[in-house]
Each structure stands twice: as structure tokens, then as C-alpha cells.
Amino acid sequence: MAKGSSINGNGGNGGGNDNYTVTGRGKVSRTQMVKEVKQGLHPDTHIYKRNGVEYARNNPNHDKPDNIND
Q1: Residue 14: how many CA atoms within 13 Å on its side-chain side?
Q2: Judging by DSSP bridges, how do beta strands 45-50 and 17-22 pair with one another?
Q3: How far apart (Å, rounded) are the C-alpha atoms in residues 63 and 65?
Q4: Beta-sheet strands, E only, within 1-70
Q5: pLDDT per residue over 4-43, tens digit each?
Q6: For residues 46 and 32, is the Cβ–Cβ distance under 8 A?
Q7: Cβ-contact 37, 45 below 8 angstroms
Q8: Which of 26, 3, 30, 25 is closest to 14 using CA atoms?
Q9: Alpha-carbon gap, residue 2 to 51, rounded angstroms
Q10: Per-residue confidence band for 47, with pLDDT thresholds at 50, 70 and 90
Q11: What is the DSSP letter of 15?
């Protein structure tokens, strides 16, 4: 599936991502992305929980800036 650098967050209310754009797929809802990350379909991405809400977040990469919101 998608590498971390091919996933971009689409900010929503309060700065959280309501959905994500995945290169070659288009928009994916936050709940679907979290489900896919938990299934191991996005190996460079992990789940971050803020205020009880789960979000997808890229694993640290010190070689280049490729965070979901970069």
C-alpha cells in the first residue's frame, strides 16, 4: 500500500485531519485510514490518539521531511 510520503492530511475542524489524500487513490476518510494502518497496510505510518480521536501519522524519517501534513 502507500508509503508515508504518499499520504497527505486534509485538515478539518480544530486542526485534525478529517480525511487523507493518498497518491493514486484520492481521498480516504480518517476512520478508513486508521483502520488500514491498524491492518498494517501502510508500513511507514502509525496511529496517534488525541483527545480520544485516532489519526494517522507518519513514522519519523530523519532523511527528508515527509510528515503527513508536510
Answers
A1: 5
A2: unpaired
A3: 7
A4: 7-11, 17-22, 26-29, 45-50, 53-58
A5: 567 888 877 667 888 999 988 999 999 999 999 999 999 8
A6: no
A7: yes
A8: 30
A9: 26
A10: very high
A11: G
Q: In the prediction, which pLDDT does 66 show?
A: 52
> For 52, which DSSP code?
T
* pTM, 2 dp: 0.78
Q: Which residues pair with 47 in a beta bridge?
A: 56
Residues 6+ apart with CB under 8 A from 7: 20, 21, 22, 23, 33, 42, 45, 56, 58, 68
Grid coordinates representing 9 are 492530511
For the chain, give percent helix, strand, coil, nearest 5: 20, 40, 40
Find cell 524519517 and name the residue. Answer: 61
